[in-house]
Amino acid sequence: MRTQQSARWAVLGAVGSVALAAGLSPVAFADVGDNRVGTRAAPTTDVVLGLQDGLLGLDLRQGGSNAPPLHGSSVPDIVVGADAAAVAPGGAAYSFLGEPGSPVWILDGRQAGTAVPRWDTGDVPADQLAEGTVEWALTGMEGPGDLKVFETAPDDRGTEAESSTPHVLFDSADGLPDARVLPAADSGELSWAFTEPGEYRLTSRATARLTTGETAIANAEWTVRVEGGPSQGAGPSAPASGTPEPAVPAEEEKRDRAGSARTLTAPVQAPEAESADAVVNQKVVIDDSHVDAVAGKMVNGKLRTLFKDSRNPAAPVWREPSSVVLHVDQDAKEKVPANSAYSFLGKAGADFWLIPQVQKQGVVWAGWNTEELDSGDLKGSIDMRLTNVSGPGSVAIWETTGLGNAKVLYNSADGLPDTQKVNLGVHAHGNWGFSREGLYKVTFQLSGTLANGRAASDTRTYTFAVGDVDPNTVTPGGADGGGSTGGSGSTGGTDGATGGSSGTGGTANGSLAHTGGVPAIPLAAGAGALVVAGGAALALGRGRRRIAPVEAGPRP
User: Which of 127, 333, 359, 522 sits 20 to 30 Å CA-CA off 349?
Assistant: First the structure.
């Protein structure tokens, strides 16, 4: 693994707080010699990734003649001016920005004298990458509000930019880290939206798997100042009479801070398209019946990682993972079998909580699903990656094979990320084991190649309330469920840890999940209700390794 933890900070005129590998020239200024500073026609803020000699760089490039300060200065790397104030529109497309009419500060190139911010991988040679892509992640944020980074470029159907639906890349409101896979030697437009004025600190990471088998990592930290409007700064003068000014309602005061804000125009969509792509974002607690916790779907032309609520098979509901609490209650409590095949669960006889591969009354039955995806959406199979587990214990997901043996698919106890390939059009179930009761935040990423050849991914965090936990008091989403587990995976799955050998080398048989009427096979004598049957349609890859997709076929 190649990392920049010990690399020096690269400093060059118009580069702000950046983390660049030693000797890697900032690509934005490759043609600038001596001490001159490159300039742009209009100031902008670009996130630039570069790869040279096996070292990865993550760079905040700022155009314009006014260079930002060196890292460590009290002056921020990015200033979002008062003229960036906007008002969130109605409609589902921009609902991620907040309630309609609420103020938001958006850096999108529409301010006078500025250009559209971009991400840029033009200095990342595709032939040096094992997968032709690099991952960019927002790993942390501190500040008075939330940050949403989204794309508003024309979508895959060729609509105009101003009428296309925004695609959210990062959203701190539903938990971080968020990660996106970017194609090498490419670029795209970005918009940065902040929900409150004030000072923010952002941490970011880039990760690439090289053809040498090593993983290169770059980290960066940036500071942002969002100016709140015409009234921000010295503040109003005190009344001459000394009489206190009347109190301003909180909502009115918040709106006033946006100044003369512009109103965003929501894209116009056909009613049937909006209905077909509707995703519910209202909190719900689920503790029984069938659901597909990790489900892939194309929404407005974008790959999404969603939650498919199939408790009513006739009318399934697609939900945002950040709105769901899965309650794995005391009915799911089991004992670790004495069979050595299950030593990954802990000491024999110890308690653990199980979502079984075969449905058990009184316990939620969680699977995964790619039935909404086909060759018209993606090329080949999809990668389903467990990147992070936060909670009081470890999480393992496994399939039970013949004679009660276990094939481990994911195990946070021996290191993350863990990855499996899932064919398109698959519905599958496995066993989910939690070593201790408490609150868990479990982050999955779905990624693949769109039919147009562009890389796509979506990372979301799922919430599990395990054992004696009141799910009604739990706030879903995010990654704040307690101490991190899973060793090197605790950083959000960007360090390329491979973990143990358990569960490697799996093959896919393409079968659908069993939905009832299957004989129960005990894992071990005395395991009681701990039963499993059937198989999951997948091919397993450990760590960040990838294996060739296996075509779905009938079970023997």
Answer: 359
Max distance between CA atoms of the chain, in angstroms, equals 89
The pTM of the full predicted model, rounded to 2 decimals, is 0.48
Residue 175 to residue 73: CA distance in whole angstroms = 28
- Tell me the two tokens of residue 1: 């693994």
Q: How far apart are CA 52 and CA 122, in angstroms?
A: 12
Q: How many CB atoms lie within 10 A of CB 424?
A: 21
SS3 state at 462: strand
| pLDDT for 229 | 52
Q: Is 203 helix (H, G, I), strand (E, B) or coil?
A: strand
d(CA 208, CA 143): 29
The 10s digit of each residue's pLDDT in 142-151 is 999 999 999 8
**pLDDT 10s digits, 370-406:** 999 999 999 999 999 999 999 999 999 999 887 778 9
CB atoms within 10 A of CB 144: 13
Tokens of 445: 């990423």
SS (H, E, C) 350-379: CEEEEECCCCCCCCCEEEEECCCCCCCCEE
**Are the CB atoms for 224 and 202 separated by under 8 Å?**
yes
Q: CA–CA separation, 226 vs 209, rounded Å?
A: 35
